[in-house]
Write a structure and sequence with these properties.
By secondary structure, this protein is α/β, with parallel strands linked by helices. The protein folds into two domains: about 150 residues, NAD(P)-binding Rossmann-like Domain (Rossmann fold), CATH 3.40.50.720; about 90 residues, ProC C-terminal domain-like fold (Orthogonal Bundle), CATH 1.10.3730. Helices cover about 50% and strands about 15% of the residues. The chain has eleven helices and eight strands. Strands 3-2-1-4-5-6-7-8 form an eight-stranded mixed beta sheet, with helices on both faces. Strand 7, helix 5 and strand 8 form a beta-alpha-beta unit. The longest helix is centred in the C-terminal third of the chain and has 21 residues. The radius of gyration is 21 Å and the shape is elongated.
């Protein structure tokens, strides 16, 4: 993975760092630039500084894990590394390759990625896209960095990052809302709220693991649990009706994708 500078060590940056170290990256090969001292990981051999301006050695890769609204300030200290050939990997939502070209130079080597929060348990999925100046070997390096926290996919068309953000980037929130809704519905039928939540959480978590391990598509797994004329079939009549779940998700993802484009503008 080479020498790394991690800029920002909040939840996602910290999850990625843990994944890299677990995969054998030497702590001495990483510098973490994080202004909040409490967020700087205390690991033997790992250097933590307040700002990238404190870093003198040019890293092979700079991983940008700061919030999008903090990116302008962060990049002010980093153009010098772009000028000297460093590769940049950004996980900031809405920050386009064009944005980085404006701040780091037209020839800057940048990979833009959208991970999601299951990266915290190394079950995330990330979609990435690269600027024209990024080589195949550099894409491979970024792939390895991102793969430390889950699956990785690539797109050549950067505009697809908006629907990616809507589907997988924001997607965990939809799943958590589903748990809330299932638990609330169970409570309305007479279950104690605590039991309803426990049942909903375990059902969604277990179903997700079954989906992960099974070679069958989601549609077939749904059929497998649906007996003709049974209770599941009765519920699915509601959820799969013309005004059921699909049109709600169509509208929700379209709204999220539109907002992603607006934030990039």
């Amino acid at each position: 993975m080479g020498k790394l500078l991690l800029v920002g060590c909040g939840k996602m940056g910290g999850a990625m760092l843990d994944g890299w170290l677990a995969r054998g990256l030497a702590a001495s090969d990483v510098v973490v630039a994080e202004p909040v001292e409490a967020l700087r990981p205390q690991k033997p051999g790992l250097a933590g500084v307040a700002s990238a301006s404190d870093v003198t050695e040019v890293p092979q890769t700079v991983v940008l894990a700061v919030k999008p609204q903090s990116m302008d300030v962060a990049l002010a200290d980093l153009k010098r590394f772009a000028d000297r050939g460093a590769l940049f990997l950004s996980i900031a939502a809405g920050k386009t390759l064009g944005y980085f070209a404006q701040h780091l130079g037209a020839g800057a080597k940048v990979v833009r990625a959208m991970p999601n929060t299951p990266a915290a348990v190394r079950q995330g999925i990330t979609v990435a896209t690269a600027s024209a100046s990024v080589s195949a070997e550099e894409r491979k390096r970024c792939h390895a960095l991102l793969e430390a926290v889950g699956q990785v996919l690539w797109v050549d068309d950067e505009s697809l990052m908006d629907p990616v953000t809507a589907l997988s980037g924001s997607g965990p929130a939809y799943v958590f809302l589903l748990v809330e809704a299932m638990a609330a519905a169970g409570a309305k039928l007479g279950l104690a709220p605590e039991m309803a939540m426990q049942l909903a959480r375990a059902t969604v978590a277990g179903s997700g693991e079954l989906l992960r391990q099974s070679p069958e598509p989601a549609a077939q797994l749904r059929v497998n649990v649906t007996s003709p004329g049974g209770t599941t079939a009765e519920a699915l009549k509601i959820l799969m009706a013309d005004d059921g779940l699909q049109p709600v998700f169509d509208k929700a993802l379209a709204a999220a994708s539109r907002r992603s484009r607006e934030l990039a503008g």
